[in-house]
Amino acid sequence: MTDLSHRGGLSEPIRPDGSLFERIGGREVVDWIVDGLYDRIELEPSKRHMFVGNLADERAKVEMTPLFHAAYGGHVDVVAFLLDRGAKPGPNSGPMVRHAANRGSSEFSGLLIAHGADASRVGPGPWVLSKEVADLLMENGADVNYPAGEWIWRTCTGNNSQRDNPDLVDALVDRGADLSTWLRGGTALHFAVKAGFLGPAEVLLDRGADPNAPSDDKETALF
After folding, report:
1. Residue 213 lies in a domain
2. Does residue 215 form part of some domain?
3. What pTM value is reported for the model?
4. pLDDT(72) > 70
5. Alpha-carbon gap, residue 88 to 74, rounded angstroms
6. Backbone angles phi, psi at 84, to 5 degrees
7. Distances (CA, A) of 223 to 65, 209, 220
8. What's the burial of 212, exposed, middle or buried (CB within 10 Å: 0-12/13-18/19+)?
9. Can you tell me the distance from the alpha carbon of 77 to that of 136, in angstroms, rounded to the nearest whole number?
10. Are residues 11 and 43 in the same domain?
11. Are residues 2 and 45 in the same domain?
12. In the chain, N or C terminus with fewer CB closer than 10 Å?
């Protein structure tokens, strides 16, 4: 059973069964799909394909507007055209802003935000490497600690073809990433050293991470 309580205001862990979409709502499903977070949902292999298919269907129903397609294709001129013709970013606009921001484009991100897109759900990402983009997003509510532990998952675990990227970790900490955050029973340093990421580990230690902090299993980063 996976603890999904940090999404959608759930108070206890749930299983990804038929009631999932009713429990969490379309906005959360969209974020899972776009971010690839369904890889973190613990399912028997025989059930994963069906569940991922259901998630894809839900995204198509909730989010896949022409504006969404244009934004994900990086077509700023088409996005501007659609917005000018009355297209609305909608309540699930965070992934569009995230995608634009991670391209390093303040113009693209600003265009969406100016038309009502929600920057508060962008979460951590490479956008922090651009001062102009980072300033814009954070002025509009972006938080690198949303959701809790996500910045660790995206930079220190070695998942999803991650590479040793100390600059990204350093920029996230500059923008407020909480070094006291735990993910699955360990700190960012636990995950970085387990992945063999020397650069991020050095940044974390230089920025104040505790090398002797025990995990939930009473293991230090050295262990």
Report:
1. no
2. no
3. 0.71
4. yes
5. 17
6. -65, -30
7. 48, 16, 5
8. exposed
9. 20
10. yes
11. yes
12. N
User: Could you read off the pLDDT of 156-188 as tens digits, one per residue?
Assistant: 998 767 889 999 999 999 999 999 999 989 999
Instruction: Tell me the C-alpha distance between 166 and 174, whole Å.
Output: 12
Q: How far is CA 119 from CA 10, 40, 69, in A?
A: 22, 24, 18
CATH number at residue 190: 1.25.40
Looking at the DSSP assignment, which residues form a beta bridge with residue 183? 186
Task: Tell me the C-alpha to C-alpha distance, in Å, between residue 116 and each of 129, 134, 148.
Answer: 24, 18, 25
| Same domain assignment for residues 119 and 166 | no
Domain span at residue 123?
66-139
73 and 121 housed in the same domain: yes
What is the Cα–Cα distance from 221 to 88, expressed in whole angstroms?
A: 47
- The residue count for the chain: 223
Calculate Rg over the CA atoms of the chain: 18
pLDDT tens digits for range 116-159: 999 998 999 999 999 999 999 999 999 999 999 999 999 999 87
Amino acid (1-letter code) at residue 209: A
Distance CA 117, CA 110 (A): 9
Same domain as 70, residue 133 = yes
* CA–CA dist 60, 42 (Å, integer): 23
